[in-house]
């Protein structure tokens, strides 16, 4: 409104003056009631002139206690000694405003982290007549920032001290930004040599030509992570087999701002796996050779045995009446020996074939045990034996071999029992860590604990053929079957008498 308009309305000036007074009063009341900020006015020398609710809450002083005192008392002894309060006033006087963050002191002596803005107040002639000082308590923010800083420092120290892994950061284009001690030990570069260089220098020429480094970054950018194994290069040109994980880093807007790259040297593992694979192939070749040898040998050995057996029978038929008692007995020995030899050759051939099946399948051991008892029904009936089978699990294995295993164990349990004792066989299972343990217990003659290792060897017998028939191959079969199933087998004395065989099979 112009001065001419004001003269035509003589009551306008008093109304404007009253409005200004009201606004100033309202403004002062608003400041006084602000609780989150300490808002005070100080004179040119730093003495406090006004005090609001926020100042009382943050600093602990009541208005009557603090008015007229110097604002320096809110600063630490070190800051006062260094003249910090006066420097801030001088800065505000010269520049119009001064901002600072730091520790301040409450009435009770406790500290708080403050954000302070001091603004100079001027009169109509531009002279400084005082200051407004606005303080905000940022102690909680400072605590969080300090906690985050310490956490980052610990993480950085941890990363730096890790020697088994090369841990580094890449920018969005793949240039190295950080380098830890593990990277220096693994790749041979110092931080000064490698920071700022592109990480593709660790790759073989063929990988770089195929754009492998860029493809890994693109995969990490798209999927958040990329993993790879392959040959990498050290500074000295030597190779190592690396397992690499590249992870994309994002900002608050989900934009990719860089990558972490973690590399582990797996050269020893790779070398061991290669050696193991070569040994496995060699073993497979040898097993094939052994099976072929066993087959050919059994055929070649069986042929002359059949000839001996045929001529022995021919002699018996043609000259039996002309032979005396000794010759007849000797001829019987020859026939029995030929039969035993033939069975041993068959058992040896069967032993060479164990473990050849390479595809395991679910096998219900209770059904296998029932089939074995059916196969041995004649022997069970002859000895009036009792065979009790508890609940047995289903396992992964080769059905034919597991049937042969139980047939040998149950057959022995029935066979190695004195004639004056009724055979009793128990079969049950117990759960073990990561496996099933199967037990076959008898009430037979038992086994000398010092002989338990011998019984699993090929053609080993602890009793004479006159006492108990057999070739001594059954338990050797059992051990090879269990070993091919990655299990274990053993024997221990039964609680009362007899033996308790046990074997484990993975779940």
Structural notes for this entry:
- With 507 residues, the chain is α+β, with helices and mostly antiparallel strands.
- It has 4 domains: 126 residues, Beta-Lactamase (2-Layer Sandwich), CATH 3.30.450; 104 residues, PAS domain (Beta-Lactamase, 2-Layer Sandwich), CATH 3.30.450.20; 81 residues, Helix Hairpins; 146 residues, Heat Shock Protein 90 (2-Layer Sandwich), CATH 3.30.565.
- The chain has 17 helices and 16 strands.
- β15 and β16 form a beta hairpin.
- α12 runs antiparallel to α13, α14 crosses α16 and α16 runs antiparallel to α17.
- The N terminus is likely disordered.
Shape: elongated
Here the CATH topology of the largest domain equals: Heat Shock Protein 90
Strands of the widest sheet, in order across it, are: 2-1-5-4-3
Structural class call reads alpha+beta
The tally of beta strands, per DSSP, is 16
* Level-2 CATH architecture of the largest domain: 2-Layer Sandwich
Radius of gyration: 48 Å
CATH homologous superfamily label of the largest domain: Histidine kinase-like ATPase, C-terminal domain
Largest β sheet strand count, sense and barrel closure: 5 strands, antiparallel
Enzyme class: transferase
GO molecular function: phosphorelay sensor kinase activity
Domain PAC: 98-150, 226-278
Domain PAS: 23-68, 151-224
């Amino acid at each position: 409104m112009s001065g001419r308009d004001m003269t035509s309305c003589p009551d306008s000036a008093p109304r404007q003056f009253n409005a200004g007074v009201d606004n100033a009063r309202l403004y002062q009341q608003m400041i006084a009631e602000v609780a989150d900020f300490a808002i005070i006015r100080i004179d040119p020398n730093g003495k406090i002139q006004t005090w609001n609710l926020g100042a009382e809450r943050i600093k602990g002083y009541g208005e009557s206690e603090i008015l007229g005192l110097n604002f320096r008392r809110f600063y630490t002894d070190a800051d006062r000694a260094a003249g910090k309060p006066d420097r801030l006033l001088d800065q505000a006087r010269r520049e119009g405003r001064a901002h600072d963050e730091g520790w301040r002191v409450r009435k009770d002596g406790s500290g708080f982290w403050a954000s302070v803005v001091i603004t100079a107040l001027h009169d109509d002639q531009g002279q400084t007549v005082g200051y407004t000082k606005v303080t905000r308590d940022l102690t909680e923010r400072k605590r969080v920032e300090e906690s985050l800083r310490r956490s980052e420092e610990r993480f950085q120290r941890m990363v730096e001290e890790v020697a088994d892994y090369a841990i580094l950061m890449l920018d969005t284009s793949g240039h190295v930004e950080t380098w830890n001690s593990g990277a220096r030990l693994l790749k041979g570069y110092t931080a000064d040599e490698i920071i700022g260089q592109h990480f593709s220098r660790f790759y073989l020429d063929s990988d770089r030509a195929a754009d492998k480094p860029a493809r890994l970054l693109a995969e990490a950018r798209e999927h958040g992570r990329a993993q790879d194994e392959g040959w990498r290069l050290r500074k000295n040109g030597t190779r190592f087999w690396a397992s690499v994980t590249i992870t994309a880093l994002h900002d608050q807007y989900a934009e990719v701002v860089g990558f972490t790259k973690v590399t582990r040297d797996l050269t020893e593992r790779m070398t061991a796996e290669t050696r193991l694979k070569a040994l496995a192939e060699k073993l497979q070749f040898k097993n094939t050779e052994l099976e072929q040898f066993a087959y050919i040998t059994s055929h070649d050995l069986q042929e002359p045995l059949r000839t001996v057996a045929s001529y022995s029978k021919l002699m018996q038929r043609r000259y039996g009446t002309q032979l005396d008692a000794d010759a007849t007995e000797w001829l019987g020995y020859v026939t029995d020996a030929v039969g035993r030899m033939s069975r041993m050759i068959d058992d040896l051939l069967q032993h060479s074939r164990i473990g050849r099946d390479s595809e395991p399948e679910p096998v219900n051991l209770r059904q296998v045990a029932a089939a074995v008892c059916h196969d041995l029904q004649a022997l069970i009936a002859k000895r009036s034996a009792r065979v009790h089978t508890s609940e047995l699990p289903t396992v992964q294995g080769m059905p034919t071999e597991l049937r042969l295993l139980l047939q040998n164990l149950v057959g022995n349990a029935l066979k190695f029992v004195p004639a004056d004792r009724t055979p009793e066989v128990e079969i049950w299972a117990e759960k073990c860590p990561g496996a099933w343990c199967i037990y076959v217990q008898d009430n037979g003659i038992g086994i000398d604990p010092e002989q338990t290792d011998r019984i699993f060897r090929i053609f080993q017998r602890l009793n004479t053929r006159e006492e108990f028939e057999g070739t001594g191959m059954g338990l050797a079969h059992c051990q090879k079957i269990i070993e091919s199933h990655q299990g274990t087998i053993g024997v221990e004395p039964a609680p009362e008498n007899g033996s308790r065989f046990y074997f484990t099979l993975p779940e």
